Amino acid sequence: MKYILIFLFMVLFIGCSSNNFKYADNNQIKIYDLLNIPQDVSCFAKNIDSNSSLYDIQKEYKKYYFSIWNIDKPQEDAKSVMWPFESYKMGESYGENLQLLKEDFFDSIRENSNFESYGTVNEKALTLKESDIRSFPTHRPLFKNPSLAGEGYPFDYLQNSTIHANEPIFISHYSKDREWAFIFSSYASGWLKTDAFVILKKRDIDFWQKAQQVAITKENEPIYDSEGRFLFKTKIGMMFVLVSEDENTYTILTATSFKKSQPLFINSKISKDIASKEIMKLNQENLTKIVNEVSKTNYGWGGMYKQRDCSSMLRDMFAPFGIWLPRNSYQQSKIGNVINLKNLTNKEKIEVIKEKAIPFQTLLYKKGHVVLYVGTYNNEIIVFHNIWGIKTSRDGIEGRIIIGKPIFSSLKLGKFQENYDKESEILNNLVSMNIITQK
């Protein structure tokens, strides 16, 4: 009887608490927005205007995607791409052991970077697997002061971005040890391991660009060659050449490495349930599907650990809809019809957003972070974003409440948290909004 009473008490307690304040995830921290704002995209996808014509924007997607194959030399000078050597220096940079990096680390990296050979290779290539693009030719991390909130793990400043499998790149030159190549993609530049790509001939480049493409619409599905050998897993944002199709499958062209790093092209069959031959319509059904898929990954600074950060999530999310976005949050904030919010009061910002923002077509930007406007809930502006955490401040010391995943929230995320840092509030720091589907 004693145990039955205890069990009934626990059921009653859990049932009552679920109507008021629940624990958020497993970290025993109650986050108001996650408990009081629906975390189901279908609640907001009904706000989308399915009648808006995106043809002019969507027809440009392939041009941007393949743009890096249509240059003959780097479009930036060597000094501009060597910015990491000015940004990360001895005395203020920490390594994987959380100790200050020494001078020999930077000297050896600079020597191996071989920038005197910048722009001498100038080859077009295709990535073979999802890979990290690094700011230095090394997988060793570089942190700012790890004792400060918002620094240290996972903020490895040498992590520039990730790049998907079978994506176009341009090779500038190789490191002296030839383990790395300095590459450009359509949205990022940096160092890529030389075993992560194959050089293509002009006929292959021309064929790849002219062929019909299929866009991946489902995460983490394995792709195999014709003999069942594993190649890689799918990510939203991937595109592949369509070879043929039957009732249930697409046959796509994938690439792997052959003798002397020459490309070997392979036919791979994938289910039509995980890809789309046509550019997807920006409607309720498709949005729900794609948002649910990109929400399966956690927060990953610079795409580390095959996860996503705020800008890479939005970039990949819009890819199946034929809407091209740059890679980082600042560049994304300049796409489309930009509306300045910088000198407005918070009340005025809310009024402008409610009046002019279009659900699922409008980005809101503050320095270092970008969010997607999805509409209102209980008359409050709601956004979708991938976020590391909420800033806190106690006795002048910064802290973080870690979220580390994509969420729907208000622009005042964290306002009910203990030691909430009002100065860091999203709304308080918004500087612009931009409707990405308007020119």
TrEMBL record:
Residues 205-247 form the SH3b2-type SH3 domain. Residues 141-193 form the SH3b1 domain. GO terms for molecular function: cysteine-type peptidase activity. Residues 297-376 form the NlpC/P60 domain. It comes from the Bacteria. Residues 6-118 form the NLPC/P60 N-terminal domain. Keywords: Hydrolase, Protease, Thiol protease. The keyword Cytoplasm does not apply. Pfam families: N_NLPC_P60, NLPC_P60, SH3_6, SH3_7. GO terms for biological process: proteolysis. Belongs to the peptidase C40 family. This is Glycoside hydrolase. It comes from Sulfurimonas xiamenensis.
